[in-house]
Amino acid sequence: MARKRRKQPAPKPAPQESRATVRADKWLWAARCFKTRSQATDACSAGHLKLNDRTASASAQVKVGDTVDIKTHGDRRVLKVIALGERRGSAEMAAKLFEDHTPPPPPKPVAQPRWSDGGARADRRQRRDIRKNKGW
Question: How far is residue 71's CA from residue 32's CA, in Å, rounded to a whole number?
Answer without folding.
Answer: 13
